[in-house]
Design brief:
By secondary structure, this protein is mainly alpha-helical. 41% of the residues are buried.
């Protein structure tokens, strides 16, 4: 075996190791660990979809196009893994002396897809074929087990999003959620609602950092989105804690904390910058006039409101500042449907933050 043969064999072995590392980070490790190969694939596929779903088109067309983005990116990633394994083992077969080049590709493909039609002459080649066949089966098995977990998490997320349509309107808003609750069931029934959404945010945190591709999976209905649902519930809890004249209870405040921590952890993975310790007096994207309009709407609905509106506004802003930046950034990243106080104050169209080009994982 010549030095060139050894070098080519080692290079192929290194590519196999890198591919396995990418697959392990993406499919096995239950935390948000960036994988360079997945980053390249997801950004490349997103670039294609971004051209197709240009900002000049209507939201409905962009939504139809981007609904395919995450599934196509995952399938592309699997194809890239298999292609790299095929080429890497082809290099190793070449290093073991298989000639010509066409026969090298045939031997590698026959082994990877367990077809077994290519005859092998030496024991070393047969051992190499066995390892390639095993690796191909492992990659397919990992993806097969990965997808049910992914879609189970997606289903849990979307159950909460769909139920919010009943309580918060279309598009959902925090003031309407509180007003309807007061009219239909009474505000005291919201305590269980806050607890349910605290659990929802905890699950969101776990699933969207373990499976970051879920961030880009769109809701079954084009006017729904996990991020606008999160914003609606957080705004409703912030209004309840700051402005509604009821005895103080910790449940909405715990829910707000669970919510902004979940959104921050997801934003951290994508490299979205935010202040981890904002001041209550820091500016927010909701204007005082918008808050006053919401306040008046709740008064008209009969909701008991705190008489000191100025202090209520300051308290609301103090809660909102904890999630304002990450909420808008994630709504921009996912090209969320129009919804008050979240996606209605961002530039429309698919978006990739510059730092996402350095940190993303399928």
């Amino acid at each position: 075996m010549t030095a060139l043969n050894v070098l080519v064999f080692v290079a192929g072995l290194a590519v196999v190791a890198l591919t396995l590392g990418s697959a392990s980070r993406t499919l096995l490790v239950p935390r948000a660990i960036p994988a360079t190969l997945a980053r390249i694939v997801f950004i490349g596929v997103r670039w294609v979809f971004r051209i197709r779903a240009g900002a000049r088109h209507s939201y409905e067309r962009r939504d139809r196009t981007m609904a395919f983005y995450a599934p196509v990116a995952l399938l592309t990633l699997l194809s890239v893994w298999l292609t790299l394994v095929l080429l890497a083992y082809a290099a190793m077969f070449w290093g073991l002396g298989v000639r010509p080049l066409a026969q090298v590709i045939v031997d590698s493909g026959s082994s990877l897809f367990t077809l077994g039609f290519a005859p092998l002459d030496r024991l070393a080649q047969e051992i190499l074929a066995f390892t390639e066949a095993g690796l191909g089966l492992i990659l397919l098995a990992l993806l097969i087990t990965y997808l049910p977990s992914l879609y189970a998490a997606f289903s849990r997320r979307e159950q909460g999003v769909a139920k919010l349509d009943v309580r918060a309107g279309d598009p959902p808003t925090g003031p309407y959620l509180i007003s309807l609750a007061h009219t239909v069931t009474g505000l005291e029934r919201l305590q269980g609602f806050w607890n349910d959404w605290e659990d929802w945010f905890v699950q969101l945190d776990e699933s969207h950092t373990s499976f970051p591709a879920l961030t880009f999976f769109r809701s079954p209905h084009p006017n729904q989105s996990w991020i606008t649902a999160a914003g609606t519930v957080l705004d409703a809890a912030s209004l309840y804690a700051s402005s509604v004249d009821v005895p103080r209870t910790p449940d909405p405040e715990y829910m707000i904390r669970a919510g902004y921590l979940a959104l921050r952890h997801i934003a951290d993975f994508f490299g979205i910058r935010h202040d981890p310790n904002p001041e209550p007096t820091d500016p927010i994207s909701v204007r005082r006039e918008e808050y006053d309009t919401a306040y008046d709407e709740m008064v008209a609905a009969g909701v008991p409101m705190k008489p000191d509106r100025d202090q209520a506004w300051r308290d609301f802003a103090g809660w909102r500042v904890n999630y304002d930046v990450v909420l808008l950034a994630l709504a921009r990243l996912t090209d969320a449907p129009p919804a008050p106080w979240s996606s209605d104050r961002i530039e429309p169209g698919p978006y990739t933050p510059p730092i996402l080009r350095r940190r993303v994982r399928g």
